[in-house]
Amino acid sequence: KTFLVEIGTEELPPKSLRTLAESFAANFIEQLDNAKLEHGEVLWYASPRRLALKVLNLNDTQPDSQIVKRGPALSAAFDANGNPTKAAEGWARGCGISIDQAQRIQTDKGEWLSYTQNQKGQPVVNLLCDMVKNALSKLPIPKPMRWAARQVEFIRPSHTVTMLYGEDLVPGTILDIESNRVIRGHRFMGEQEFTIDNADQYPDILEQRGNVIADYDKRKAIIKQQAQDAATKLNGKADLTDSLLEEVSSLVEWPVVLTAKFEERFLAVPAESLVYTMKGDQKYFPVYDKQGKLLPNFIFVANIESKDPQVVISGNEKVVRPRLADAEFFYQTDLKQRLEERLPRLETVLFQQQLGTVKDKVLRLEALSGFIADKIGTNVEQAKRAGKLTKCDLVTNTVFEFPETQGIMGRYLALKDGESVEVATAIEEQYKPRFAGDELPSTYVSCAVSIAEKMDTLAGIFGIGQHPKGDKDPFALRRAAIGVLRIIVEKALPLDLADLSTYAVSLYGDKLTNKNVIEDIVSFMQGRFRAWYQEQGFTIDTIQAVLALNPTKPADFDARVKAVTHFRTLSEASSLAEANKRVSNILSKTDSVISEHVNAALLVDGAEGELAKQVLILTDKLAPYFNDGRYQEALVELAALKTPIDAFFENVMVMVDDEQIKLNRLALLKKLQNLFLKVADISLL
Question: Which NCBIfam families does this one have (predicted)?
Fold first, then answer.
């Protein structure tokens, strides 16, 4: 039969509603599996005032099972005269048997006493209450509550518990509430309370009699479709981000999508401020025209079907108007002062106690942005100007009220001040990429400023020894490091992490206390390489083969990793990797000083002569490949060495008695190894 459990509560936290429901279902499935109960699909339901599960085709009885109880080993179960020891007798009493009834089992560790007990399966209704309790106890609830005089704790006060197995009520007490058939409907529509006769009636009966759509994804789909239809009527497109859709779906039990408007004069305010107000504070969906310009309309979701929807619409328009008016006031006030005039106020904003103020940071960013711009061949003056103005919008009224607009407001105000588009864009894009998968800065000037912003933070925080530990990273240094690496790699910028770190550290003067700060930064960022490339699907030994050379240019590292990955697809790769391991082992076991040159007169064997000839040819041929970073082409050329290398190891003994010949052969192997080490240490593959 179908099993239903519904927990009726006060309004649950909207941002965690889906997580709670999915965890409830996962926990209950675990309980079912532990009890070896056969069942069909497990469906979860969630609305602001309830969590529910429905298990289809749940067996009415637990299957019988056999429990094997192993006793002591025979050596410990009987004494020298063959009489049972106290340990054996105690075990037998615990099993409810005599020693004579015990069986014996043979294992790889010897023979043991054992007893197989048949356990009859219990009726499912006897198990369900405890299973629900266990599933609820494992929900991810950071701050449980108590209510009234009850000692029980849950995420919100609970009022009803319904557990049905088919048409039968499952007895039991959950959260101090007796299971019954009463289900509560919508607060203001439908029947406030009604009884349910059969688990199969859920959730349809709740929708028909209680005006509650318990199916979370159904509510979300209704909201999304109706919002899209409403936007189409306005010749626009609704801003339906999934996070906001999820939150709104968690706030309503009977979604009714309505359209409202605001005064067009507010469109003179930067759209981002209006959007943050509508989405963040009011949970409204903004609407854009086909050119991406904000329209003076918004879409919202009511939790009630009003007889006069216009009243609901007017109420929401009245609520949002003062918030938009605030945004307008802040922006117009901010326009009265140029960005550059705000620089002195940054002296009152602390960056970090040991590292000084945001004004100090801005002066460093000005220099570091110019340094990077020069390295990547973009406009140095624009980069320095953008670096100087990067943080000025932090002391504007708009950013103070809407922190999410930092950078964005800087761009608007910079353009109003007559700054170049490149400078204004760089001010906004200094924070990109903000998260994994976020887009990168769009111009080279922006790239210079964004890298500078992140490298300054890395240099400062590492410079005072506050490295990230475990999952604690209060200054988001991992994100900053990945951001720098992504920009350099994906934009193919000729930047060296060691150079960047050295210059960034030098700008702090004597404020830094960590003597190894530069090495720490480079090592930390190389560690980010490992994690980042593994996420992209590159094998760990490929990454390690490149990291063995300690490359500090990210774009160069990227080229090497991709070259080694391609090399591994070649038929010669496995043999050459083994040969390099062999070369590496031979060279590591000698204490002799190995010459950089191979003496042709000492090449007495034909196989070593042929290998030396090919190594010499490729050394000259591949020099420009290595200089230009054409590592993939170089490794393809080096694959041709497979035949002479195989012939060498088949016919030539390296560690011969003749010292001169031995050292000459070691010199040849060293030159061979160095050729491959121009790309990576493939002996690690």
Answer: glyS
Amino acid identity of residue 620, one-letter, is: D
- Please name the amino acid found at residue 246: E
Sign of the dihedral defined by the CA atoms of residues 284, 286, 287, 290, in that order: negative
Residue 165: count of CB within 10 angstroms of its CB:
21
Peptide bond preceding 203: is omega within 30 degrees of 0, i.e. cis? Answer: yes
Domain extent, residue 222, equals 216-331
Beta strands 168-169 and 173-174 are unpaired
Q: Using CA atoms in the order 538, 539, 544, 547, what is the torsion angle rounded to 10 degrees?
A: 0
Q: How far apart are CA 637 and CA 634, in angstroms?
A: 5
Alpha carbons 380 and 452: distance in angstroms, whole number: 13
Residues 295, 436, single domain; the answer is no
Clarify whether residues 76 and 164 are in a common domain: no
3-state secondary structure of 471: coil
CB 550 within 8 Å of CB 520: no
* Same domain, yes or no: 429 and 326: no
At 196-252, the pLDDT tens digits run 999 999 999 999 999 999 999 999 999 999 999 999 999 999 999 999 999 999 999
Are the C-beta atoms of residues 17 and 52 closer than 8 Å to each other? no
Q: Which residue has the tokens 């942005």?
A: 369
Helix (H) / strand (E) element for 94: namely helix 86-95
- Show the CA angle centred on residue 437, arms to residues 277 and 472, nearest 5°: 80
Considering the domain architecture, whether residues 532 and 616 belong to the same structural domain is answered as: no
Instruction: Name the 3-class secondary structure at 140.
Output: coil
pLDDT of 210: 95
The SS3 call for residue 508 is: coil
Its pTM surpasses 0.85 = no
Whether 484 and 529 have beta carbons less than 8 Å apart is answered as no
Retrieve residue 464's tokens: 């005072």
**CA atoms of 555 and 496, how far apart (whole Å):** 9
Residues 310 and 379 in one domain: no
* pLDDT at position 364: 96
Check whether residue 516 and residue 659 sit in a common domain.
no
How far the first Cα of the chain sits from its last, in Å, is: 56
DSSP string, 594-639: PPSS--GGG--SHHHHHHHHHHHHHHHHHHHHHHTT-HHHHHHHHG
Segments of the chain scoring below 50 in pLDDT: none
pLDDT digits (tens, 9 = 90+) for 566-607: 989 988 888 888 888 888 888 888 887 888 888 888 888 888
Closest CA relative to residue 56, chosen from 7, 5, 6, 3:
3
Q: What is the pLDDT of residues 516-543, one digit of tens each?
A: 999 999 999 998 888 889 888 999 999 9
Count of domains forming the chain: 5
